[in-house]
Design a protein that fits this description.
2 domains, mainly alpha, 434 Repressor (Amino-terminal Domain), about 160 residues, 8 helices, globular
Length: about 160
């Protein structure tokens, strides 16, 4: 069974990098086993890369043609969101608008990519749009600042 990894999480970022580079390559780059790197992508494990290992993985991801720096992007987003927690409720309308825009673009791109014979470039563009939509929703989710238990209806 595939574990769900929340968007805007270190688990998802490591999985994204390994999806391009492969688990064995990631392990070799940071002097760890592929299994150890897989643990970094497991939301149920307490393992995580060091800052130096994260930097190596992000740089290798870019060098292999990946867009962005997955681990750094999560780190930066979490840092920014935590710093803005006092003003999150004021930022929520802007985050909601950004999420609506990004997810609208993702749906439009998915519609084009779902056409028979859609070129790889169109499908790749759709993937990027979907990732941006997920990230925008992840930022809105974090800005809601509601504990998981409350969101599940526990203690309401």
């Amino acid at each position: 069974m595939t574990k769900l990894r929340p968007p805007l999480s270190f688990d998802q970022a490591v999985t994204r990098i390994a999806g391009l580079l492969g688990w064995e390559t990631c392990g070799a780059l940071v002097g760890r086993s592929a299994r150890a790197v897989r643990a970094w992508s497991d939301p149920d494990a307490d393992a995580s890369p060091s800052i130096e290992q994260a930097l190596i993985l992000d740089l290798a991801y870019r060098a292999a043609g990946g867009e962005g720096s997955p681990i750094f992007e999560v780190y930066a987003a979490k840092l920014d969101l935590d710093a803005q927690s006092a003003t999150a409720s004021r930022a929520l309308p802007d985050l909601a608008a950004a999420a609506a825009k990004e997810n609208g673009e993702a749906l439009a791109a998915l519609t084009l990519a779902s056409q028979p014979g859609a070129p790889l470039a169109v499908r790749a563009a759709a993937r990027r749009e979907v990732e941006e939509g997920i990230q925008a929703l992840g930022q809105a989710l974090l800005a809601l600042n509601v504990p998981t238990e409350a969101a599940a209806g526990v203690g309401s």
